[in-house]
Design brief:
mainly beta; single chain; 36% strand; two-stranded antiparallel ribbon; 13 strands; three-stranded mixed β-sheet
Length: 94
């Protein structure tokens, strides 16, 4: 699968454009990660001290995406399952 960078779908395997399933691409370098198997991966554990976004396992996500929403190193929530969107402050809503 690919990720979307604006109106363009890309492979989703580059550090600056990582992701899949047609979701918006993430820039892994923005939080010191690299793209591995279409997922941003960091070498340090993800927690409140190492991540300003949200944690998906040990991956620090930006926290402003509908499928990875949250701030302060909390566990990422998927707003998509609620047919919602990620709002500023890491909260899901319609």
């Amino acid at each position: 699968m690919t990720c979307c960078s604006g109106n363009q779908c890309v492979a989703g395997t580059e550090d600056h454009a990582c992701g899949g399933n047609g979701h918006p691409c993430q820039d892994c370098t923005a939080f010191g990660a690299t793209c591995v198997n279409q997922t941003c991966v960091v070498t340090t554990p993800c927690n409140a001290k190492t991540c300003s976004g949200c944690c998906y396992g040990d991956v620090c996500a930006q926290g402003n995406q509908d499928f990875a929403c949250g701030i302060g190193g909390t566990v990422c929530r998927s707003c998509v399952v609620q047919n919602g969107h990620c709002h500023p402050g890491g909260n899901c809503g319609l």
